[in-house]
């Protein structure tokens, strides 16, 4: 098994999993289960629209939504860690207040 990252994207100001996001979570869960992954790390992110404090809470909700879906898909909670970064680690650098779809995400890192 090789380390691999999956990315779940979210609509603006939301943390519910779209059908597309659920597909990515299912793929990640299958990859982790089939490879007997030792570690699965979920990190939530937000774009720079809204306050920094709001975005930390939103990225937390996104990370927890993905983590809950992974557990529902059979990932053992003991191998799962969850973190959130708010707007501090954008995928695409932008100025403050920018609605950037690629920054509204949770990453799922799977390690052997």
Reconstruct the topology from this structure.
Elements (H helix, E strand, L loop, with lengths): L3 E6 L9 H16 L4 E6 L7 H21 L7 E5 L20 E7 L1
Parallel strand pairs: 2-3
Antiparallel strand pairs: 1-4, 2-4
Description:
The chain is an alpha+beta fold and 112 residues long. The chain is 33% helix and 21% strand. It has 2 helices and 4 strands. Strand 2 (39-44), helix 2 and strand 3 (80-84) form a beta-alpha-beta unit. Helix 1 (19-34) crosses helix 2 (52-72).
Number of beta strands: 4
* Rg computed from alpha carbons, rounded to a whole number of angstroms: 14 Å
Q: How much helicity do the residues have?
A: 25-40%
What are the low-pLDDT stretches, counting only 5+ consecutive residues below 50? Answer: none
List its salient traits.
112 residues, alpha+beta, 4-stranded mixed β-sheet, 4 strands, 33% helix
Care to give the gist of this entry?
This protein has 112 residues and is of the alpha+beta class. The protein is built from two helices and four strands; from the N terminus they run βαβαββ. α1 packs across α2.
């Amino acid at each position: 098994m090789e380390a691999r990252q999956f990315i779940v994207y979210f609509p603006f100001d939301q943390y519910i999993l779209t059908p597309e996001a659920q597909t990515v979570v299912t793929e990640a869960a299958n990859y982790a289960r089939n490879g007997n992954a030792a570690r699965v790390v979920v990190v939530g992110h937000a774009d720079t629209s809204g306050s920094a404090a709001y975005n930390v809470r939103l990225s937390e909700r996104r990370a927890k939504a993905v983590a809950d879906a992974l557990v529902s898909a059979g990932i053992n909670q003991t191998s799962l860690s969850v973190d959130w970064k708010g707007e501090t680690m954008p995928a695409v650098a932008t100025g403050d207040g920018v609605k950037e779809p690629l920054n509204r995400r949770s990453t799922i890192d799977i390690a052997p």
